[in-house]
Amino acid sequence: MQVTAMDVYRLLPKTNCGKCDESSCMAFATKLIEKELTLDDCPQLSGDERQKLEDLLAPAVREITFGPEKNQVVVGGDEVLYRFELTYYNPTALVVDLPDDLPSEEIRKRASDIMNLKFERTGEELTLDAIALRNKSGSPEKFAEAAGTLAELNFPVVLCTFDPEAMRAALEVLGDQRPLMYAATKDNLQEMADLSISYGCPLVLFSPGDLEEMKNLTRRLRAMGLTEIILDPGTFTGEGIGDTIDNFVMIRRLAVEERDEDFRFPIMGIPALSRLSGGDPVEDNIKEATVAATLMNRYADILILGGTDIWELMPILTLRQGLYTDPRKPQTVDPGIYEFGDVDENSPVILTTNFSLTYYTVEGDLKAGDVTAYLLVLDTEGRAVDVSLAGGQLTGTAVADLIKDSGIEDRVKDRVLIIPGLAAPASGEIEDDTGWKVLVGPRDSSGIPDYLEKLASE
Amino acid sequence: EAVEALPEEEFEPPVKTYPGEVAQVKLGEGTRKPVYLGGQKALYRFEEPQPNPPVVTFDVFDIPMPGLPRPIREHFSDVMEDPGDWARKAVKEYGANMVTIHLIGTGPKVMDKSPREAANDIEEVLQAVDVPLVIGGSGDPEKDPLVLEKAAEAAEGERCLLASANLDLDYRKVARAALDHNHAVLSWAITDVNMQKTLNRYLMKEGLSREDIVMDPTTCALGYGIEFSIDVITRTRLAALKGDADLQMPMSSGTTNAWGSREAWMKKDEWGPTDYRGPLWEIVTGLTMMLSGVDIFMMLHPTSVRLLREIGETFTR
Ligand code: B12
Ligand code: SF4
Questions:
Q1: A336-457 in CATH: which number?
Q2: Collapsing DSSP states into helix, strand and coil, what is residue A317?
C-alpha cells in the first residue's frame, strides 16, 4: 500500500500560495512523499488537516524516538518487508545491558566503555546506541541512584524494570532525558501507561509468546492515548528461536501488509537472554551474536546485548551497516587524486576504484602504513577491482582518461603507475593506452606499505 | 476503567498461500546415507512445516592448501596431505552431514593434476566416508568440465553434486556428466536473478529436471556485499514460491567466502583473537544466507559447522 503524491495533494490547502518555497501544492506533495520536506514546511495547515496528513504519511512501522535532545535514537520507520523493495530505515539500535547493583564508579566506567566503543568500516564509525539500565538489585532507591549516575552522561538509556515503583523513582531523576521504559506487561499495564504519559517517555510492551494477548494490550494502551510504543514478543533462544522468529515476522507482516494499527510499532529483541549464567564467555558471546544476527535479519529495530567484546560486536555492527545501506544508491567516493603524507613530485602513484568498500580499505592500509603517495581513484560506478575488471569499467582507456583529467602528470616526474594485483590482466592494456609504465602491486592492499618500501630501496 | 472493558479481539496469524513450491533434491545414493534439500511449500514454519533442515558440507581439498587461515589449519594439519583422511576427520570428529571435495590441484596454474588423478582422489574420498559428496573443480573454465566428467564417472551411482555449471564454461558437458552417471548439478550465477534463470533453463534443456539442480546465487561475505546476496536470494525464493518454474530449486551458499574478509583472518590486536573472530564471521555470513532462503552451506571451520547446523535444526523444528 504505497501512498501517492495525489493522495497527499487532496489533503493540502490547494492554494499554491508558495509559502513553502515550492511552486505549487502538488510540487510540495511530491517532496513530502520523497521525504525531502516535512509538514512543518507548509504554514497553512489547520490542525485537522495536519492530523489527517500525519496519519497518511506515517510509515508502516511508526518511528519512535528516545534519549536526550542532543543524542536521540530513532527506531522503526520501515515501509517494506524486504530491503530490495525500497530500503530499510533507521538502523537497529544496539543497546548494552548494565545492572544497577554495581558501585557507581563501576557503572560510570562500564557506561563510558559502551559509549566509546567504535569500529571503523568503509569510512563510517560504527557505534553502540544506548545503555539498558537493569533493576537487578530489585530496589527502587538503587535503581534511581544508578539512573542519576547515568543522567550525568547525556547518553540514551532504556530503564528496565517491571516494578512501577522502581520505574517512577528512576524517571524522577532521568525522566527529562526521555529514556525508553521497559516494560509494561499485562500485570502492570495501567501503572506503566500512566508513568509513560506523565513523563512523556515511550514504553515497551512485553507480552512473551502470545500475539493475541499482545494485540489486546496494545489496543488498551492506544485507547489510553499512548502512541509511542515498542513491542517485545519475547526472545526465546536455543530451541525456542524458531518461535521467536515467527512472532517477529508475524508482527511485521501485519504492520506492513495489513496496516494493523496494533502492530505498527518497532520490535525489540533481547539476545542477552541467550547468555547462560556461569557459561563459557566465548561460547556465550558466539551464541548471543548469532541470536542478534538472526533477529536483525528478521526485523528487530532494537536489541539489548550483554557483551562488549569487540570481536563479538564487529559482525553485528557490520551486518547492520550492510542491511541498512540504501540499495538504490551505489556506495561510492568521488573519483580523482587523493594525497597521503607529504607528497612531492617523486611520490609514487597508485590506482584503485571508487567503490566505498575498496577505497576505504585501501585508505585504511595506506594510513596504517604511514605511506606517502598519490592515490588515483577511478570511477568504476562503485565497483570493486575484480568486479569492474570483469564488467568492463576498469580499462586502459578509462585509466588514460583519469590520468589526463586529474592532472597527475603535472604533479609527478616519473610516469609509473602501481595497480592492484587483481587488475594484473589489464596491465598491458593500461600501459598501451596511458604510455605509463605499469607495476602490478600485491593482491591485498594491506601489502602496499611493504611493497612501496621494497620498491624505494631498489 | 473504560479501557479495561474493551472487547477482546481475535488474532489472525498472517498466513499466506503460495502457488509454487521448491523441488526436493536428493543427494547420496548407493553406499551413501542420503540427504534431502529444499521441498519448501511456504516461506515460514508458521505457515507450513519446513520439510528439511539446512545441511552443512565440510570443505576438503585435494592438496594441502597453503592459503588456509591458521584457525582452520590447526584442526586439520595432520590430515591435509590426504583428502580421504581429511574427509574422514570432518565426518567422524566434526559431524559433517556432507563433504565437499575441491579438486583445486587440477588447476593448470596449481598442480595441473589430470582428470584421471582427480577421479582417483574422488574414489579415495568415497571409500573414506559414507556421506554424500559435493565435487568441485579448480575454477578453471577450460579444465573443470573435463575434470567433473571423469569425477562423475568415478562416482557413478553415488549421486553427488557437481560444482559447478556456469555460463563461462561448457555447462553442457557438466550437465551430460550428471545425466549419464546420475548426479545433480550446482548451477552458479553471480548475484543476478536473470542470469540464474537463463542458466537453469539451459540446464533443463539439456535434460536435467528441477530435482537435479541446486542453485548457487553467490555468497558475498559479511561486510563484502552480503546485502547483494540477501536481496538476490530473497527474490529467488519468493519467485519460486510465487510459481516461477525456472527458480524452483534449492539454494547453496559458498559460506567459506567469509574467510576472505580481513575481519575474519587478519591479525590485529584491537579486533580481538582471530580464533573467535574468524568462525563467528563465517557463522554470521551463513546464518544470514540461511534466513534468506539457502538450504546447503559449504563451510570450513569446525565450530562454524557445528553451530550453524544446530541453529538450522532449531529453525525448522
Ligand atoms: C560483490 C561482488 C559483486 C557485486 C558488485 C559489488 C561492487 N560494488 O563492486 C555485483 C553483484 C554487482 C557483482 C557483479 C559482477 N561480478 Co562480481 N563479485 C563480487 C564479489 C563477491 C566481491 C567483490 C568485493 O566487494 N570485493 C571487496 C573489495 C574491497 O575488493 P577489491 O576492490 O578487489 O579491493 C581489494 C584488492 O583488490 C586490493 N586493492 C584494491 N585497490 C588496490 C590498489 C593497489 C595499488 C593494490 C596493490 C591493491 C589494491 O585490496 C583490496 C582489499 O583486499 C567477488 C568475489 C570475491 N569474493 O572477491 C565477485 C567477482 C569479483 N565478480 C565477478 C564477476 C564475473 C562479476 C560480473 C561480471 C558477473 C556478470 N557476468 O554479470 C558482474 C560485473 C558487474 C559490472 N562490473 O558491470 C568475478 C570476477 C571474475 C574475474 N576475475 O574475472 C568474481 C571474482 C566472482 C568469481 N569468483 O567469479 N559482483
Ligand atoms: S505552503 Fe502549503 S498551501 Fe502553500 S503552496 Fe506550499 S503546500 Fe500549498
A1: 3.40.50.11600
A2: helix
Closest residue by Cα to residue B188 from B133, B144, B244:
B144
Q: What is the CA radius of gyration of chain B?
A: 20
The residues, ordered by sequence, that sit 6+ positions from A269 with a Cβ below 8 Å of its Cβ are A232, A235, A244, A248, A291, A292, A295, A300, A302, A303, A304
B-chain residues near A82 (CB < 8 A): 231, 234-235, 238
Task: Tell me the C-alpha distance between A319 and A297, whole Å.
Answer: 9
Tens digit of each residue's pLDDT (9 = 90 or more) over A68-102? 999 999 999 999 999 999 999 999 999 999 999 99
Whether B1 has a pLDDT exceeding 60, the answer reads: no
CA distances from B202 to A242, B23, B38, B165, B212 (A): 37, 17, 21, 10, 13
Would you say B259 and B303 are in contact if contact means Cβ atoms under 8 Å apart? no
CB contact under 8 A, A286 and B283: yes
CATH architecture of the domain covering B46-316: Alpha-Beta Barrel (3.20)
CA distance A189 to A368: 54
In chain A, which residue's Cα lies nearest the Cα of B277?
A311
Number of H helices, E strands in chain B: 10, 10
Q: Which CATH class is domain A5-57?
A: mainly alpha
**Strand spans (E) along A253-343:** 268-269, 302-305, 336-340
Closest CA to A27 of A5, A50, A42: A5
**Is A447 flagged in the annotation as binding?**
no
The number of residues making up chain A comes to 458
Which parts of chain A have pLDDT scores under 70? 1-2
Using a pLDDT cut of 90, give the percent of chain B over it: 88
- The answer to whether residue B102 scores a pLDDT higher than 50 is yes
Complete DSSP assignment for B246-257: GG-S-BEE-GGG
A262-299 tens-digit pLDDT: 999 999 999 999 998 788 999 999 999 999 999 999 99
Order the strands of the A268-269 sheet from edge to edge.
A229-232, A203-206, A180-184, A157-160, A130-134, A93-99, A302-305, A268-269
Q: CB-based contact (8 Å) between A283 and chain B?
A: no
Asked if residue B261 has a cis previous peptide bond (ω within 30° of 0), the answer is: no
- A369 ligand 1 Cβ < 6 A: no
CB B210 within 8 A of CB B204: yes
CB of A445 closer than 6 angstroms to any ligand 1 atom = yes
SS3 A378: strand
Locate all alpha helices (DSSP H) within A117-272, ordered by sequence.
140-151, 164-174, 189-199, 211-223, 241-258
Q: Given ligand 2 and candidates A9, A17, A46, which is best to mutate, with the most ligand atoms within 8 Å of its CB?
A: A17
Q: Which of B276, B294, B317 should be substituted to probe chain A, the one whose Cβ sees the most A Cβ atoms within 10 Å?
A: B276
Cell numbers given for A109: 566506567
CA-closest candidate to residue A174, choices A145, A148, A156: A148
User: Would strands B24-27 and B35-38 be described as parallel, antiparallel, or unpaired?
Assistant: antiparallel
Does ligand 1 lie within 6 Å of residue A77's CB atom? no
Q: What distance, in Å, lies between the first and last C-alpha atoms of chain B?
A: 43
- Domain spans of chain B, in order of start: 46-316
* A64-323 CATH: 3.20.20.20
Nearest to B45 among A84, A121, A246 (CB): A246
- Residue A345 DSSP symbol: T
Of A153, A154, A167, nearest to A206 by C-alpha is: A167
User: In DSSP terms, which residues pair with A94 in a beta bridge?
Assistant: A303
Q: How far is CA A118 from CA A113, A115, A122, A141, A311, in A?
A: 10, 8, 13, 33, 12
- Under DSSP, is residue A118 helix (H, G, I), strand (E, B) or coil? strand
